[in-house]
Amino acid sequence: MAAFAAGADPDIQVLTERQQGRIISKASFRLPLRPCEAFAFLTDYEANLRVQPEIKEWSVDRVAGNKVIVRRLVKDSVLLFPIQLETVVEYTEIRARELSFSLLRGDPQFYAGRWSISSEAGGSRVRYESEVDFSLKLPAIVIDAVFRHRLREQFRFLADLVRQRDYQNAEACRLASGGVN
């Protein structure tokens, strides 16, 4: 399976809506990897955090066989307003095709969701669902538009990272499945 050619479309789909003050997101994108390779890629927490310029500080701690605590400090701007968000999120790795996550503490009022991976022709479909409640002093319509745009950018960024790293191997699948291929 070959990685995307430069500029190839990873078929990014992003839907967001607001319900009771929270942003509900459903998104997906395509990766040219087998599901086990896509899972190994998504769970390479350190490598994925290290290359994102808006993430200024991070730590990753595996606290159990399938639980990981990720702490992030994000510094960015929205319409020239500086934003700083700190989060501590617990990820639970379920089988080698799903991750659930929930905010333990941080600046958002609420953040939880899941990643899931399924096979499709030529690779995998990665799905992301989340519910988030930011307490930012900006109009909801602005926050929603920026959030939707940033999700799309983030997924394109992840698809581009696949081209830069080698996750197309049996070792990635062995590791993603807990040592069982």
Q: What can be said about the biggest beta sheet? A: 8 strands, antiparallel
Element-level helix/strand string: EEHHEEEEEEHH
**Could you tell me the radius of gyration in angstroms?**
16 Å
The SS-based structural class is alpha+beta
Instruction: Please report which band the strand proportion falls in: under 5%, 5-15%, 15-25%, 25-35%, 35-45% or over 45%.
Output: over 45%
Shape: globular
Q: What distance lies between the first and last C-alpha atoms, to the nearest angstrom?
A: 18 Å
Approximately how much helix is present in the residues? 25-40%
Q: Largest sheet, order of strands side by side?
A: 1-2-8-7-6-5-4-3
Number of helices: 4
Give a quick set of tags describing it.
disordered N terminus; alpha+beta; about 180 residues
Written account of the structure:
The protein is of the alpha+beta class and 181 residues long. The chain has helices at 35-42, 45-50, 140-164, 170-176; strands spanning 13-19, 22-31, 55-64, 67-78, 81-94, 98-106, 110-120, 123-133. It has an 8-stranded antiparallel β-sheet. The longest helix has 25 residues, at 140-164.
